[in-house]
């Protein structure tokens, strides 16, 4: 009898222990997700669609952003639309259906995604645009692309003024992307910056378009066949720099053989750009950057996400949050390299 009683008590104790074990994990999980609480256990769901994942700059920044979001406890999906607005609209629709708390769009065509972003907002989803001052968004994280272009042009003009004169003009190639509004603004800014800061010592002999390395390299090689003395290259992004630099290295026989009066000046910040600048053996002469490294930019973007998700009010002029510009030079390049 005693054995039966003892057996019954042990069974009850075991069952109680099992029940306690089954119920402690769930409330802890719910507290972190529902209450907000610690930012590392926020549990928010974020959908991100960008123009092109083949672009070295975007690939680098998104890799760091993805890591930050996951480390902080967010569920993140990052996709590229391959510069296809129809595909990007479908991606945003999928984010709406999946119940995202925040959608970030880097639009291939801002006008094309206005309507679907408006639908997302009607569903109670926060929307952030990277690059364009859109209407149907909670906030826009933007650059003044005309001013950025002017800064690139001004930096290139300093290089031209150092090496060229009115009697020996620099032959310049401008690398843009006119079918993307913000990059067209940037390209126009570059040309304005050259005009404002050069001393009648340059001539734009060619204009090409492209943001992907291989595409730019191929077009740059064609330009060099028609204009073998074209030595100054300015452009709207990392692909413009890497592609044209590769073409110039091939033309002149590799690293260490680039003439002093040959230079590439663009924007964006990628490891390949920084390596080329730091080596001093290629045509890369200067980079006009943003926050700094990939990690710096990703962290700044994440801070914008938190501000939006925490309910900060963005209205009127405050809806467009402008990003700072920064010069990358030999004084700060090692610090920036460490965050790539």
What descriptors fit this protein?
340 residues, alpha/beta, six-stranded parallel beta sheet, six-stranded mixed beta sheet, 12 strands, 50% helix, elongated, disordered N terminus
Describe the structure.
The protein has 340 residues and is of the alpha/beta class. Helices cover 50% and strands 19% of the residues. Helix 9 links the parallel strand 9 and strand 10. The N terminus is likely disordered.
Short description:
This protein is of the alpha/beta class and 340 residues long. The chain has helices at 2-34, 56-71, 85-97, 110-122, 145-163, 181-197, 213-226, 238-252, 271-279, 294-309, 333-338; strands at 45-50, 75-80, 102-105, 126-130, 139-142, 170-176, 202-209, 230-235, 263-267, 284-289, 320-322, 326-328.
Mean pLDDT across all amino acids: 88
Question: Biggest sheet, strands in spatial order?
Answer: 2-1-3-4-5-11
* Poorly predicted runs: 1-41
- The gross shape turns out to be elongated
The portion of residues forming beta strands comes to 15-25%
Q: So how many helices?
A: 11
The termini sit apart by 73 Å
Helix amount: 40-55%
The total beta strand count reads 12
Q: What is the radius of gyration?
A: 26 Å
Give the class from helix and strand content and strand pairing.
alpha/beta
Main sheet: strands, sense, barrel: 6 strands, parallel
The topology string of helices and strands comes to HEHEHEHEEHEHEHEHEHEHEEH
């Amino acid at each position: 009898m005693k054995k039966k009683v003892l057996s019954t008590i042990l069974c009850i104790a075991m069952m109680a222990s099992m029940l306690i074990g089954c119920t402690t994990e769930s409330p802890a999980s719910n507290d972190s997700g529902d209450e907000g609480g610690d930012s590392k256990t926020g549990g928010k769901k974020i959908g991100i669609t960008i123009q092109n994942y083949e672009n070295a700059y975007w690939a680098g920044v998104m890799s760091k952003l993805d890591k930050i979001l996951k480390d902080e406890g967010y569920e993140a999906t990052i996709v590229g639309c391959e510069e296809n607005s129809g595909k990007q609209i479908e991606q945003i629709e999928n984010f709406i259906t999946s119940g995202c708390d925040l959608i970030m769009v880097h639009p291939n065509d801002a006008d094309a995604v206005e309507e679907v972003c408006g639908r997302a907002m009607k569903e109670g989803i926060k929307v952030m645009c990277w690059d364009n001052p859109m209407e149907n968004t909670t906030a826009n994280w933007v650059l003044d692309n005309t001013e950025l272009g002017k800064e690139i042009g001004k930096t290139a003009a300093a290089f031209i003024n150092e090496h060229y004169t009115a009697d020996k003009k620099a032959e310049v190639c401008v690398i843009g992307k006119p079918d993307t509004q913000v990059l067209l603004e940037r390209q126009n800014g570059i040309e304005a910056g050259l005009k404002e800061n050069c001393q009648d010592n340059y001539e734009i002999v060619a204009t090409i378009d492209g943001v992907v390395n291989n595409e730019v390299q191929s077009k740059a090689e064609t330009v060099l066949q028609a204009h073998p003395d074209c030595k100054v290259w300015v452009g709207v992004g990392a692909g413009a720099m890497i592609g044209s630099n590769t073409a110039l290295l091939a033309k002149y026989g590799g690293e260490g053989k680039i003439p002093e009066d040959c230079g590439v000046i663009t924007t964006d910040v990628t490891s390949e750009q920084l390596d080329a600048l730091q080596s001093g053996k290629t045509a890369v002469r200067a980079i006009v950057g943003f926050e700094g490294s990939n990690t710096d930019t990703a962290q700044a973007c994440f801070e914008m996400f938190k501000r939006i998700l925490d309910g900060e009010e963005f209205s009127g002029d405050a809806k467009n949050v402008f990003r700072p510009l920064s010069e990358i030079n030999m004084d700060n390049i090692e610090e920036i390299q460490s965050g790539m």
